Structure formats: C-alpha cells, structure tokens
Amino acid sequence: MKMILLGPPGAGKGTQAKMLTEAFGIPQISTGDMLRAAIRAGSELGRQAKVNIDVGHLVPDNVVVRLVEERTLQPDCARGYMLDGFPRTVAQADTLAAMLLRRGERLDHVICLEVPSEVLVVRLSGRRTCRQCAASFHLEFNKPQTAGVCDKCGGELYQRADDREDAIRARLVTYAKDTAPLIDYYRKLNVLRTIDGQGDLRTIYARIERAIA
Ligand code: AP5
Ligand code: MG
C-alpha cells in the first residue's frame, strides 16, 4: 500500500503515521524527519535545508525529490510506504506520479487531515519532539509519561526550531500557498479522503483506518 498523509503543519501527520506504520507494517517516510537528520549530521544537504526550515520556507523540490526517490527503493518499502510531508508542491506531486508510473506502481490513498489554524498554532507551540525517533508529544494534549523523555525510545525531547511563533505563522502561509493546491490535485484523481483531524489520537486513527479499508 502506498499512501500520502497530507495536511497543514501540526495536523497530526507524524503522530498518526507512527501509529499506522506499526499497524500496517509499512515504513513512514517523513521528508521533514530526513532533513532534520541531515541537519544533525552536519552534511551539506543539512546546511542547505536548515536555512529554509528554520524560517518556515520549503526546501527546493529537487533536493526532497532525490531523497524520496532513493528512500523508496530501500527493501523495507517493498510492501509499500506512507509519505508524511511529501509531496508539498504540485511539481513534487508530478514528479512522484512520474516515478510511480516508471516503476509500474500506483498510489492507493491520500488522506488529508483537517484542523483549523488556531488549533494548529496551539499544537505546534506546545509540541516536543524526540531527538532520537522523531515521535511527537505535547505539553498538554499528549504528555510523555516522564517530562522531557520519549515514551517510545527513551530519547530526549526538544522543541523544534520552527515551532517558534514567527516560524509557525510562516509555515502556515507556505502551506496555504504551495501545498493546499494538492487537495484539488488529488481530489481530481479520486484518491483523496479528508478526515477531521480534531479529537483524541485513537478516534482520528479509527477515522483513517475506515477511510483506507
Ligand atoms: P515537517 O517536519 O513535515 O513539518 P510540517 O509539515 O510543518 O508538519 P509537522 O511535523 O509540524 O506537523 P505534523 O502534522 O507532523 O503534526 P504532529 O503529529 O507532530 O517539515 C518541516 C520543514 O521541512 C518544512 O517547513 C520544510 O521547510 C521542510 N520540508 C519537509 N518536507 C518538505 C518537502 N516535501 N518539500 C520541501 N520542504 C520540505 O502533531 C503536532 C502536535 O500536535 C504534537 O505536539 C502532537 O502531540 C499534537 N497532536 C497531534 N494530534 C493531536 C490531536 N489529535 N489532539 C491534540 N494534539 C495533537
Ligand atoms: Mg511531522
């Protein structure tokens, strides 16, 4: 199964992807997590990405497309994968379509999580992310059992540089301009399902499960 999780920053893509990946046995491919790993590694790619990420702008299409093309060829993607945060522009969606066609594959589902902007700001400003496994927690809505420590792997929780108020606003503007057009793009291809992204984590998970059944 190949699916895309679409939705604005803070919609819960990463949170739901981590739950789905355990249940469906296919990997989560988060371009955001891959770019942050490159930043931590101090690579040239990481340096380029950091300049854009920290201020809420997109990383150039050719950079992320290359990451996804390579990652999806790994053996753990043989039974499918879940794209989280990719594609994010019409150009990226076109490249993905061409890649799938070339490989004789197809996209099964595009799930778009809908959450109002004012809720997104509250979610992102209280988010804490695991440095090791990239799991998301929230100071109020999704507290770790021990403050500052990841429940899943024991890693240290930190606040992402782009979870400051000014960067959050910029990311929402970038989403509206560059990524929201993908909703119509995938609706026309008859693969889109919009899901209410508000409620507790399990309820949203059940909505997604129903949509892809
Ligand atoms: P990326 O890492 O993809 O960030 P994003 O799209 O802005 O999305 P987030 O990770 O912030 O939110 P999410 O939907 O995963 O929410 P989460 O589950 O964590 O990208 C970062 C940057 O990298 C981009 O700005 C760009 O610069 C670059 N980039 C990445 N991909 C790119 C691409 N394809 N092209 C170009 N550039 C790219 O949840 C958020 C919070 O809410 C958490 O605290 C969580 O605990 C909480 N929460 C989750 N669900 C609920 C719920 N149901 N109720 C209450 N709280 C909840
Ligand atoms: Mg995420």
Summarize this, please?
The protein is α/β, with parallel strands linked by helices and 213 residues long.
Bound chemical compounds: BIS(adenosine)-5'-pentaphosphate, magnesium ion
Major β-sheet, in short? 5 strands, parallel
What percent strand?
15-25%
Number of domains: 1
- What general form does the structure show? globular
Shape-level CATH architecture: 3-Layer(aba) Sandwich
**Widest sheet, order of strands:** 2-3-1-4-8
Span of the ends, CA to CA: 11 Å
Radius of gyration from the alpha-carbon trace, in angstroms? 16 Å
Broad structural category = alpha/beta
Number of strands: 8
Tell me the CATH superfamily. Answer: P-loop containing nucleotide triphosphate hydrolases
Relative helix content: 40-55%
Describe the structure.
The chain is 47% helix and 15% strand. By secondary structure, the protein is of the alpha/beta class. The chain has a single domain, classed as Rossmann fold (3-Layer(aba) Sandwich). The strands form two sheets. It has a five-stranded parallel sheet, sandwiched between helices. It has a three-stranded antiparallel sheet with strand order 6-5-7. Strand 5 and strand 6 (136-138) form a beta hairpin. The longest helix is centred in the last third of the chain and has 15 residues, at 165-179. It is globular. The mean pLDDT is 96. The structure holds BIS(adenosine)-5'-pentaphosphate (AP5) and magnesium ion. The site of magnesium ion has 5 residues, from helix 1.
